[in-house]
Amino acid sequence: MTTDDQVRMPVLLQLAEQAMSDLEFRAVARHDLEGALRQFGYDLNPRERTLVFRFRAALEEAGIDLFLTEQLSMEDIDLLRGIGEDLIEQDQEKSAS
């Protein structure tokens, strides 16, 4: 694995925090996640980008619309953390094989 495809957890955590707390980011991301990432300075590598889009798809599948939720409870945050951790674990298992 090269540094170009390593998952930078601090970057993804910063993105998750911004997605949960920044209404302006969410307003853009609601319609154009790719554009929001660019506009807010997230230069993600392909692997990170895949994780972000898989995370968003997993939320949609679970019926959670993060981008329309203005206030998240601690239960919501714990659920999001669990989904994210599951996706990262799957990604690590996939890259290890």
- Described by the principal axes of the CA atoms, the overall outline is globular
Low-confidence spans: none
* Class per helix and strand makeup: mainly alpha
| Terminal CA distance | 12 Å
DSSP strand count: 0
Helical segment count: 5
Which series of helices and strands comes N to C? HHHHH
Q: Specify Rg, calculated over alpha carbons.
A: 13 Å
Helix share bin? 55-70%
Query: Overall pLDDT, averaged?
Result: 79
**Biggest β-sheet: count, sense, barrel?**
none
What is the multimeric organization of the chains shown? single chain
- What is the beta-strand fraction? under 5%
Please provide a written account of the structure.
With 97 residues, this protein is mostly helical. The chain has helices at 9-21, 23-29, 33-39, 46-61, 74-96. The protein contains five helices and no strands. α1 (9-21) packs across α2 (23-29) and α4 (46-61) crosses α5 (74-96). The chain starts with 8 loop residues before the first helix and ends with a helix. The model has no long low-confidence stretch (mean pLDDT 79).
Brief account:
The protein is mainly α and 97 residues long. 68% of the residues lie in helices and 0% in strands.
Main features:
mainly alpha, 97 residues, 5 helices
